[in-house]
Amino acid sequence: MTRKKQFKYNILNKCLYNGYHVLCFEVIPINQTTLYNLEPIDLGKGSVESLSSYSLRLAEAHSLTAGKLVGRKVAVVLNKAYLIKSEKEGGSRFYEVAYEINGLGSLAKNWAQALVVLTGRKRLEELTLIRFNEWLPDRGLLRSHLAWCPACLEEWKEGNKEVYEPLLWNFKVVTNCMIHQTQLETECPNCLKTIQILSRKRRIGYCSRCGAWLGRLELHKEITSGEHLKWQLFVIQNVQELLATSSRIIVELSNAHITAAIKDMVNCFGSKRAFSKEMGIPETTVRAWLDGKHRPSLESLLKICYSSDLRLVDLVSGKYEGVKYSSRIISSDKGQIRATRRHFESQHILNMLLGYLNNKSLSMREVARRLGFDQRVLYNHFPDVCKAIAHEHRLWIQKMRKIRIDASCKLVREATISLLDQGIYPSRRKVESILPSAISLREKMLQKTWKETLFEFHY
């Protein structure tokens, strides 16, 4: 978007010349932002919107697709070559992990800072969880795909309110909307596909795959009553209170307070074993918390607070007077939540990994998913085999990319010659119109083939 440069003027002095008052002034250019200074929704409240939601609304306000906002604006500020390459040549690897822009890590921090530069809008880091990264681990924290309340979307649209995606919906531990007494949906009702948090053609409230509107008032997934209702109400209230926490209180939040509270809980139960059994948490995990080797996940902290009649903010800030056990059962629709420990059969898993070594099309992430273990666990036990699988997969990707590019270049050349034979100038749009939709001349090698073919025929 091109904008006229604006200026302000400072009067230096005025004097009298030939009977006229003459003003002497200096011209100072006003700093202009590239994008609109869009206001975030519910900033400072528990219902604050997520940074991914803000990014999508920002793209919509400038009549841009999300992909163009990422590739032409954010990527330039971040100076990330892989994002610029993704815009030019395609690829979806960034969008597979784009949910992390709402999280705790460097991607969230860099993304928020880039949007501050582009819009001039301050406090955008509060649309993420960056301010809690000192004590909150990212393990099991955020969803990798979209979850939403269809009734909320429909009511906002019908009431002519801004439709957005609250940061609250991104938490894995939040499974319900307490306003409408229903479960959050995770699949498009039209195409039954999951939806990425951010993708090239994503629009708020619409499926990025089939384009269907996701809002509706006729709800079928009514939540169960009883303990699960109480648990979800407790979770949502505490998470919203955390998101609404002011900067002054955030300074007081500390992992040391969490460790002290867990020690009090263990003393209340009499032993680590009794505490871990009642909470459904492995004793080795509790021991690691107390030794400072690991930090409790958000769900674990909420379980402890729920069973102790504590507010999460009070536990993390150390503002509580003693700990008492309330004996409340934490349950889900599928029954009581209890952590189970898997038996690790080293030889069997090694044999499985060696079998996957021959299947080069599988990434190490996919192999870990199929085996049902975390990648880090497998790398710790079998580093050489895991590295070999990852290496073979990279070579396979490079090979398949070359095959795809060679085939695409052949199609581009044939399409260009076909148009020339018909007496039609083979412009980029003309060539792309007769190619498969997956092929784009934005890709450098294909563009090079197109230009070389034109040059060959003296165009």
TrEMBL record:
GO molecular function terms attached to this record: DNA binding
Protein name (database record): HTH cro/C1-type domain-containing protein
InterPro entries in the cross-refs: Cro/C1-type_HTH (IPR001387), Lambda_DNA-bd_dom_sf (IPR010982), TniQ (IPR009492)
Pfam families, per database record: TniQ
Organism of origin: Desulfitobacterium dehalogenans (strain ATCC 51507 / DSM 9161 / JW/IU-DC1)
Domain HTH cro/C1-type stretches: 271-315
